[in-house]
Amino acid sequence: MALVAVTDHAVERYRERVRGTLDPRTEIAARVGRALEVGRSEPGQRGATLVRDVERPALVYVCMEDRVGGELVVVTLWEEGEDAAVARKWTSWRTR
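RESULT FIELD:
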């Protein structure tokens, strides 16, 4: 399994979408690790890797590789679809 780090920003976005978690940082790292194990990643823009959650496929984690630290860093996330807890238009930097 890949070593996964999670930024404070990603934790904040996760809490907006997945309520009731006691340790969101650990939960995000575990979910990203499981998704990577089953091949649910694809290239994103500007060198990012997009990782789709196994349990909630609409949840997309945006990750960057830290080559020096040897980790995959989850920098943010969003949720796709009409049933998203927070519409992407409110969280996407491209619409601001």
